[in-house]
Write a structure and sequence with these properties.
By secondary structure, the protein is an alpha+beta fold. Helix content is 21%, strand content 34%. Strands 1, 2, 3, 4, 5, 6 and 7 form a seven-stranded antiparallel beta sheet that branches. β2 and β3 form a beta hairpin.
Length: 137
């Protein structure tokens, strides 16, 4: 399947021209235009190149650290953590954490429970600070 880099570039220009960013908080899950990316980086879907993203850390009203979600459940995979959000099982893609501009946020889906959010933050800390060994390829 051919990636639509030009379409994404055009949408990115529109997003960049927005004067206002939406108000958002940590623990919220938003539809976020994450775009068309390179290689194994996660891509967005639909004409908005979006997917659900969990806001892990709000740095200011413009920038946040977020983790994309997927409907694919990967049991016992260290970089996918299963959550239950609005009575649906989803996975938080721990290894796809990235800093985004809040202009990419299009619509809030809701807020993750404090308990599940704590689990995600702990897993992120373990991944970033090195509980898991570096893979050797």
């Amino acid at each position: 399947m051919e990636k639509k880099f030009e379409d994404w570039s055009n949408l990115k220009k529109k997003l960049d021209s927005h004067q206002k960013s939406p108000s958002f908080e940590e623990r919220e899950i938003w539809w976020c235009s994450i775009g068309i990316n390179v290689g194994h980086e996660e891509n967005g879907k639909s004409d908005l190149f979006s997917r659900p993203v969990l806001v892990v850390r709000k740095f200011n009203r413009h920038m946040f650290l977020g983790v994309p979600l997927t409907s694919k459940i990967k049991e016992h995979h260290k970089f996918y953590h299963k959550i239950n959000f609005k009575d649906k099982e989803q996975s938080v893609m721990i290894s796809q954490i990235i800093v985004w501009e809040s202009k990419r946020l299009t619509r809030m889906k809701g807020k993750l429970s404090a308990e599940q959010f704590g689990e995600v933050r702990n897993l992120l800390s373990e991944m970033i600070l090195g509980k898991y060994p570096t893979p050797h390829f």
